[in-house]
């Protein structure tokens, strides 16, 4: 039991940065609870479980939805997500009225094969209800080792909710999809679904391909993009900004940093599509483009996640995702819990047959090409 007590005290002192003398009552209560659990609790508890519980409690006490203790499986899934290849079911999800909604099932994946459709509401993942759950947590729950099973409770309009059991497969979803718009001779369209380590390089390749096909203007679609890797968003913003700041990273303890664009840029008419599910790294890119006035934002106000997380590896394969900074747009706007207002507001119903936001974006690009 002494080992457990020492371990618990060490974790508390290390993470909170206090001394036993400085916080004797709080630390004493923690040691007392451990002693009672070890000595009086009906069932035996492994010391490792108590330490893990203490760590979880500390992180949860921050009341920060973006700071999370990651168990071994969740930490592994997050690393896969950053790399862009993972064990999963193949869906892009977003939030609508605090419900987790399928935005797109990717072809030839377990989700598509099971008949899951855009617009379906994921009511629960396993035994965890998804109401008010953030998309990042939901994504992590749906991902896991290849060959393992996840059960989704799906609700579809006009039907009773049903459970669907899905076996995870290796999913390698391209984060950048580009094409020349078929009814336009010289307008390109690029959608970025999330930001992984490869997204920046994929975006550069796609831009080059479209320019070779005669692209004279571009629609960049960041709708339902939950964000991701910071450096990827910076690399992409650098393609569109001539010079000056891309984003300011503001730390609590004096090591603030500004990422600046290089002089070369893609000097074409640009319209960026955003909505309430455009978050984090997607907002960094959208905010940089708006402040630098190199493009026009069309759609609805973005999510409003203006904080940066750092992922720290812990022992036994676990990790800690901790909010370590906030970011400000080039003009030093703090968009956290506020979002970014588009230049042109166009509402778009999820069930609409016509994409009004895309139509407006095409119209604006066309006007600027021929003005």
Task: Describe the protein.
The structure is a single chain. This protein has 371 residues and is an alpha+beta fold. The chain folds into three domains: 2-61, no CATH class; 86-171, PDZ domain (Pdz3 Domain), CATH 2.30.42; 176-370, 2-enoyl-CoA Hydratase, Chain A, domain 1, CATH 3.90.226.10. Helix content is 33%, strand content 27%. The strands form four sheets. Strands 3, 4, 5, 6, 7 and 8 form a six-stranded antiparallel β-sheet that branches. A six-stranded mixed β-sheet has the order 10-11-12-15-16-19, with helices on both faces. Strands 1, 13, 14, 17 and 18 form a five-stranded antiparallel β-sheet that branches. A hairpin with a 2-residue loop joins β5 and β6 (128-129). α1 runs antiparallel to α2 (24-40) and α1 (2-16) packs parallel to α3 (47-60). The termini are far apart. Keywords: Hydrolase, Protease, Serine protease. This is Peptidase S41.
Record the SSE blueprint.
Elements: H1 2-16, H2 24-40, H3 47-60, E1 68-70, H4 72-83, E2 86-88, E3 91-96, E4 99-105, H5 110-113, E5 121-125, E6 128-129, H6 135-142, E7 149-155, E8 162-167, E9 169-171, E10 176-180, E11 187-192, H7 199-212, E12 217-221, H8 230-240, E13 244-251, E14 257-261, E15 270-274, H9 281-292, E16 296-299, E17 307-313, E18 319-328, E19 344-345, H10 356-370
Parallel strand pairs: 11-12, 12-15, 15-16, 16-19
Antiparallel strand pairs: 1-18, 2-9, 3-4, 4-5, 5-6, 5-7, 7-8, 10-11, 13-14, 13-18, 17-18
Helix pairs in contact: 1-2, 1-3, 7-8, 8-9
């Amino acid at each position: 039991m002494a080992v457990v007590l020492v371990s618990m005290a060490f974790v508390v002192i290390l993470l909170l940065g206090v001394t036993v003398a400085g916080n004797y009552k709080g630390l004493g209560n923690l040691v007392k609870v451990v002693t009672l659990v070890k000595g009086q609790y009906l069932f035996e508890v492994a010391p490792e479980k108590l330490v893990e519980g203490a760590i979880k409690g500390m992180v949860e006490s921050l009341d920060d939805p973006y700071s999370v203790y990651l168990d071994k499986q969740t930490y592994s899934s997050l690393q896969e997500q950053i790399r862009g290849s993972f064990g999963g079911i193949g869906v892009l999800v977003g939030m609508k009225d605090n419900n987790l909604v399928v935005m797109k099932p990717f072809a030839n994946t377990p989700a598509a094969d099971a008949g899951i459709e855009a617009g379906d509401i994921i009511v629960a993942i396993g035994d965890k209800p998804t109401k008010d759950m953030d998309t990042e947590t939901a994504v992590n729950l749906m991902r896991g080792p290849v060959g393992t099973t996840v059960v989704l409770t799906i609700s579809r309009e006009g039907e009773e909710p049903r459970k669907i059991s899905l076996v995870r497969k290796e999913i390698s979803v391209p984060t950048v999809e580009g094409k020349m718009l078929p009814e336009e001779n010289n307008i390109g369209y690029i959608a970025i679904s999330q930001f992984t380590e490869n997204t920046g390089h994929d975006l550069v390749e796609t831009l080059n391909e479209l320019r070779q096909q005669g692209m004279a203007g571009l629609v960049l679609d960041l709708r339902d993009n939950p964000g991701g890797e910071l450096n990827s968003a910076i690399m992409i913003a650098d393609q569109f900004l001539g010079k000056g700041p891309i984003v300011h990273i503001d730390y609590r303890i004096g090591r603030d940093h500004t990422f600046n664009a290089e002089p070369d840029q893609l000097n074409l008419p640009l319209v960026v599509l955003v909505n309430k599910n455009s978050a984090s790294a997607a907002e960094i890119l959208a905010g940089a483009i708006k402040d630098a006035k190199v493009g026009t934002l069309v759609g609805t106000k973005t999510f409003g996640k203006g904080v940066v997380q750092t992922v720290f590896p812990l022992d036994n394969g676990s990790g800690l995702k901790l909010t370590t900074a906030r970011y400000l747009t080039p003009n030093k706007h703090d968009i956290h819990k506020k979002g970014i207002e588009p230049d042109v507001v166009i509402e778009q119903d999820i069930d609409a047959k016509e994409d009004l936001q895309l139509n407006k974006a095409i119209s604006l690009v066309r006007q600027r090409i021929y003005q």
